């Protein structure tokens, strides 16, 4: 099995979901909840229910509130996606109930920073699987598929409701710290999602593009594409070489190009993800 095919294996997805759920639960139970923070998403709503009612726990409230969303997900999204998401929901709840450790962080700001980073890493690891963290993720994906409403807009709208309620009943300092927590969770999540997928798209304009293309294939093991161009100054046709590489290969490619043609034009652009061919497979829910 090729390395990129692991993403569709059951064991790999279960490892990702379990690891991410434990980290996410630890960030909440060991840091956020002792400080009275309100996390974003459905777990934030579950935490509010716990603070107001004093019954159950945030983990149990989360699974209770998730039941109707899971049913909706099975109807409107694939059964495989929902099976993994249901496992993630149960794993998160069990991990939350079993964790009893308190980090002992006293400073509210430090607690928000630490909890946000840990929760973001955990959530990102889960989203690297073929499932999700459950909760509002299910509704956000349905709205995106049916009405092309961006995931970020759905999360923002729901979190506005959560924090709007929080400001009415919880100290403003705690709510602001909670917003910092959610903000850092989002940043950490995005970093995890892009850490192993980011590529460089390189455009090379040179009179020796044919030779450079051969050297790229021979020394880097990656292919490239010729794009027909036309020089504005000399008014002559010229091939533009385009290739996609990772960060490690960038310096080697630069050396290949300028060793052959010191007057070449070397243009590098960041890209979040590359799907198809020898790169990542398309993620199908």
Which terms summarize this structure?
Alpha-Beta Plaits, 10% strand, 4-stranded antiparallel beta sheet, 4 strands, 285 residues, alpha+beta, 10 helices
Report the mean per-residue pLDDT as an integer.
Answer: 84
Distance between the termini: 21 Å
Percent of residues in beta strands?
Answer: 5-15%
- Order of strands across the biggest sheet? 2-3-1-4
Can you describe this structure?
With 285 residues, the protein is α+β, with helices and mostly antiparallel strands. The protein folds into 2 domains: 193 residues, no CATH class; 73 residues, Alpha-Beta Plaits, CATH 3.30.70.120. Helices cover 62% and strands 10% of the residues. The chain is built from 10 helices and 4 strands; from the N terminus they run ααααααααβαββαβ. It has a 4-stranded antiparallel sheet with strand order 2-3-1-4.
Sum this structure up briefly:
62% of the residues lie in helices and 10% in strands.
Task: Please outline the helices and strands.
Elements: H1 10-32, H2 41-53, H3 58-76, H4 79-98, H5 108-127, H6 136-147, H7 151-169, H8 172-195, E1 199-205, H9 209-220, E2 225-230, E3 237-245, H10 247-260, E4 265-271
Antiparallel strand pairs: 1-3, 1-4, 2-3
Helix pairs in contact: 1-4, 1-5, 2-3, 2-7, 3-4, 3-6, 5-8, 6-7, 9-10
């Amino acid at each position: 099995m090729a390395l990129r095919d692991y993403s569709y294996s059951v064991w790999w997805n279960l490892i990702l979901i379990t690891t991410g759920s434990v980290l996410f639960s630890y960030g909440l139970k060991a840091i956020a909840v002792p400080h009275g923070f309100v996390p974003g998403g459905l777990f934030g709503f579950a935490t509010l229910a716990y603070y107001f009612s004093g019954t159950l726990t945030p983990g149990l409230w989360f699974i209770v509130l998730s039941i109707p969303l899971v049913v909706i997900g099975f109807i409107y999204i694939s059964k495989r996606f929902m099976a993994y998401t249901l496992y993630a929901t149960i794993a998160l709840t069990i991990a939350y109930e079993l964790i009893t450790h308190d980090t002992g962080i006293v400073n509210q700001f430090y607690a928000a920073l630490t909890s946000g980073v840990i929760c973001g890493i955990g959530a990102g690891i889960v989203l690297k699987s073929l499932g999700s963290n459950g909760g509002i993720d299910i509704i956000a994906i349905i709205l995106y598929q049916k009405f092309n409403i961006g995931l970020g807009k759905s999360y923002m709208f729901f979190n506005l409701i959560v924090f709007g309620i929080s400001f009415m009943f919880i100290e403003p300092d705690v709510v602001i710290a909670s917003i910092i927590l959610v903000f850092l969770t989002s940043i950490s999540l995005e970093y995890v999602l892009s850490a192993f997928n980011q590529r460089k798209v390189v455009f090379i304009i040179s009179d020796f593009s044919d030779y450079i293309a051969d050297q790229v294939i021979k020394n880097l093991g990656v292919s490239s594409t010729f794009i027909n161009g036309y020089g504005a100054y000399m008014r002559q046709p010229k091939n533009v070489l385009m290739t996609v590489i990772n960060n490690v290969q960038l310096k080697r490619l630069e050396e290949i190009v300028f060793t052959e043609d010191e007057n070449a034009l070397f243009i590098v652009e960041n890209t979040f993800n590359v799907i198809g061919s020898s790169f990542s497979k398309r993620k199908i829910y």
